[in-house]
Amino acid sequence: MPQALVCMSHSPLLEYTNPPAEVKEAVEEAFDAARSFVRDYDPDLVINFGPDHYNGFFQDLMPPFCIGYRAHGTGDYDSFDGELDVPTEIAEDLSQFLVEQDLDVAISRNMEVDHGAVQPMEILYNGRPDAKPMIPVFINSVARPFTKVSRVRRLGQAIGEYFSNSEQKVLFVGSGGLSHDPPVPRYHEATQEQKEFLVSGRNPTAEARAARQQRTIDTANAFAAGEADIMDLNPEWDRKFLEVCRSGDVTQFDQYRASDMDQVAGHSSHEVRTWVAAYSALSAAGPYELSYEFYRPIKEYIAGFAVTTAVPV
User: Which residue of 15, 53, 118, 216 is most buried, as measured by CB atoms within 10 A?
Assistant: First the structure.
């Protein structure tokens, strides 16, 4: 098995809200399945397709894609705040390859990655995102203008092609989604104070970060009680997206449009772009099949919550 994939939803609320016990148990069973899958595969290198939530990337400079040559965790929601094990030479060579495929990517020698990228690694490696060499691939999933989803697919496929003849065992990880609409400010609807944060909100004080996080926690609790002013989850949309993942025909991802996603699946459903990239990367090696799939709409996590694993056929 030269390559493998894990895609999962993330939520900063995993440790901050309380879904029914059977829901928490079902999610933990899904995490156990993913951990077992990764333990058996034992990759040499992880390619981590992740979003950001205005912790590492801001609108003073918001690229559609960015490859990390070095990276560290931001520590938001008590997530990992240390240095990640990024193989710089491989990341540099990958970036050069992508440019030669007419895919212009930004690069960072000091990337900050938040819970959106590190939480899956924390789950898979028992709290140690630095347990394996990892190349972080940021995909903008929060700020307009959004690049076409077909472009995200091309990026993923090109990354898969780069590693198709590698002697290393490569694990593609995609993190985010599915349908959800958490209280993230949108620039054209934001107050002046919020706009200043969206542009230059790096390195907040501990008090400012705690207040921001508490607003999200409060929204989740209100959402679970049916009292929050955010869009509802859309299980039908989620299941159709999972059907595309399962089909193996990654060109079907091209049908997704940013404006439609906003309207039917929530303003943060764009995080499924990380799944598009990961599944497209795996598809570069040929047909694949899902070996595990879990899905539940979970209001306490403000997410249509899914976990999947896949391997080449």
Answer: 118
Indicate if the pLDDT at residue 1 is higher than 80: no
pLDDT at 2: 85
When pLDDT is cut at 50, 70 and 90, the band that residue 158 belongs to is: very high
* Domains contained in the chain, number: 1
With a cut of 90, say whether residue 225 has pLDDT above it: yes
The angle formed by the CA atoms of residues 53, 230 and 239, to the nearest 5 degrees, is: 80
CATH number at 273 reads 3.40.830.10
Q: What is the pLDDT of residues 64-88, one digit of tens each?
A: 999 999 999 999 899 999 999 999 9
Query: Which range marks the domain in which residue 33 is found?
Result: 3-312
Catalytic amino acids? 115, 180
> CA-to-CA distance for 5 and 172, rounded, in angstroms?
5
